[in-house]
Automatic annotation (TrEMBL):
GO terms for molecular function: adenosylcobinamide-GDP ribazoletransferase activity; cobalamin 5'-phosphate synthase activity. GO terms for biological process: cobalamin biosynthetic process. Joins adenosylcobinamide-GDP and alpha-ribazole to generate adenosylcobalamin (Ado-cobalamin). Also synthesizes adenosylcobalamin 5'-phosphate from adenosylcobinamide-GDP and alpha-ribazole 5'-phosphate. PANTHER family: ADENOSYLCOBINAMIDE-GDP RIBAZOLETRANSFERASE. This is Adenosylcobinamide-GDP ribazoletransferase. The chain crosses the membrane at residues 32-51, 63-85, 106-127, 139-160, 181-203, 215-236. The keyword DNA damage does not apply. It is an enzyme of class 2 (transferase). Its EC number is 2.7.8.26. One of its GO terms (cellular component) is plasma membrane. It catalyses: alpha-ribazole + adenosylcob(III)inamide-GDP = adenosylcob(III)alamin + GMP + H(+); alpha-ribazole 5'-phosphate + adenosylcob(III)inamide-GDP = adenosylcob(III)alamin 5'-phosphate + GMP + H(+). Belongs to the CobS family. It is a multi-pass membrane protein.
Length: 267
């Protein structure tokens, strides 16, 4: 089945964990995008598992925050961070459009990429540390679904927005069949959002039956923040670069996951 092939394609392309079955079928590329969030679910389960491990081991909070910060970048093979840095190099150069596109494709790392990556890790680490300081382990199970929500938004953007001429996803955008996959990806996002928000509400009701909305509001705000960050950052990058590609998808994905972790820290 193409769905199974697409799953292993997504695993092999977007996850650093060795793929047990290496497959590739160009016709299954749309299925790869649909399965992208499923790979995110595997990453999220392991992310939450890492939290449980560092919590059980009573690892000092700064080190625990550092491990939980590094994990999403390491497990993805830094591929989305690469897109984030490439886009920042191009956009912040403030050059004409064609020059920005040339910089986007350039394999060299520029100053803007390095500076924004440092700021990203500072914000991510500070937010994760603040979330751990809340000493509420129940909010941390959202780590399971944060990667799913981010990847559904990025996959949908790749399918529905005009690609750059150099993008590997041109055929998907041009194909009416490929564009119908946006509904499958949208459904996955909706299910993940309902599971996160609804699960938070049920958990809060069980833990504190006479209390306020608590986890429900936290997870609803997290979902909204992640959604808005993906939409706004993706739209900004597409406007600055003249279209959609994998780098823009990675740029939006990194911003959306950062927004989610910030939400855990402050809401």
């Amino acid at each position: 089945m193409k769905a199974i092939t697409g799953f292993f394609m997504a695993w092999g392309n977007f996850c650093a964990i060795p793929c047990p079955c290496k497959k590739w079928d160009e016709k299954a590329r749309p299925h790869m995008l649909v399965m992208f969030p499923v790979v995110g679910l595997i990453m999220g389960i392991l992310w939450y598992g890492l939290f449980l491990l560092v919590d059980a081991a009573s690892i000092p909070r700064p080190l625990a925050a550092a491990l939980l910060t590094a994990y999403p970048f390491v497990v993805s093979g830094f591929i989305h961070l690469d897109g984030f840095m490439d886009c920042n190099d191009a956009i912040l150069s403030r050059r004409p459009l064609e020059e920005r596109r040339r910089i986007l494709k350039d394999s060299h790392v520029g100053a803007f990429a390095v500076i924004t990556a440092i700021l990203l890790f500072l914000l991510f680490y500070a937010s994760m540390s603040s979330a751990l300081e809340r000493e509420n382990p129940h909010i941390m199970w959202s780590l399971i679904l944060i990667p799913v929500l981010a990847r559904t938004m990025s996959a949908r953007a790749v399918i529905v927005h005009q690609p750059l001429s150099t993008s590997q996803y041109q055929k998907i955008f041009a194909s009416s069949k490929g564009r119908r996959f946006k509904w499958a990806v949208s459904l996955i996002w909706l299910l993940a959002a309902l599971l996160l928000i609804g699960g938070g509400g049920l958990l809060e009701a069980e833990l504190n039956p006479e209390g306020g909305p608590g986890l429900f509001c936290t997870f609803a705000a997290l979902t909204a923040a992640e959604f808005c960050a993906s939409i706004l950052s993706g739209a900004y990058a597409r406007r600055q670069l003249g279209g959609m590609n994998g780098d823009v998808a990675g740029f939006a994905l990194v911003w959306s996951e950062l927004a989610a972790v910030i939400s855990l820290a402050v809401i």
